[in-house]
Amino acid sequence: MTKFNRRQTLGLIGAATAAGLSAPALASNRKIKVGALRFTSHSGSFIAFERGYFADAGLDVEFQFFQAAQPMAVAIASGDVDYAVTAISGGLISLADKGAIKVIGGALSEEKGIDGQKFLISDAAYQAGTKSLKDLDGKKYAVTQAGSSFHYMGAKMAEKEGISLSFTPLQKVGAIIGAMKSGQVDGWSIVPHIAKPLAKAGAWHIVGDVSDYLPDYQVTTVFTSADNAANEKALTKDFLSGFSRGVDDYAAAMIDGTASQDEMIDLIHKYVYTDRPREKAAPSIINGTMRLNKGAALNLASVQDQLSWFQSEGLVDKDITIDQLVDTSYVETIGG
């Protein structure tokens, strides 16, 4: 098994950008690090920790928080973090191609009937006559980087609309928000808790749902190092067991209405929008609610579509296979 230090892993990322759960091991008390972003969509891990589901699975969890997905992938590949959730990107696929990481389950998904990510048009473009996604033909569309999930979503929308977009990489979500507000870019897609408040304030206009163009899109995945996937099977199953119980509680409270939403908001607020008082954080937490896959089930057909698109764009090696990216032995898979 090839080992990667942090510098080597960062090199791989840069090159890519340029181009059934077991019963838990109750007494093991194994220390692991879990990577997370302070987003509602990472709540499965937060709930599993707060309600003792990781502890029940024999795990002593420490969170390591990140500002973006790419450094989290680096940390997994270099062994600094054990498990995490992130979107599929060109960088992530390259790390799998090099034998550094494996996708082992699914997390956030687009699902019809549940509020999801939005396509947006900047107010400046809208006032100038760009009223629909089709009107974005030839205009600037914001992405963090070439080979990001934003790039994939925009390209798939453009393909269905029969338009051409000028993809503009701005590196960070904050920079994209600023560019949308100032009219430097014309379109973008983002999660509802960011899209809806700023649309209400007039910063941009919501003109479509990502689910209309990418039904059942597997937005984020659970992943780990290839070494953990191959050689720490009991540990990996224990992590997925605890995580899945957290996801079940999240769905019951935030989607299905069979458990207390207020109690769940209190729990999530310990990790998300912590700089805001609870009454101001609650609407954004609610707006960020999307489907997290039960049992960490993985939509393999969606993952294959993403892999094929990255290959068609020359962003990853054309010879990498779905088996190099995904270990299907841990969870239920859909399609593929």
Automatic annotation (TrEMBL):
SUPFAM superfamilies hit by this protein: Periplasmic binding protein-like II
PROSITE patterns noted in UniProt: TAT
Location (main, coarse): periplasm
Family, as annotated: Belongs to the bacterial solute-binding protein SsuA/TauA family.
Signal peptide location: 1-27
Alphabetized UniProt keyword annotations: Signal
Protein known as: ABC transporter substrate-binding protein
Compartment(s): Periplasm
Source organism of the structure: Roseibium porphyridii
Domain SsuA/THI5-like: 40-251
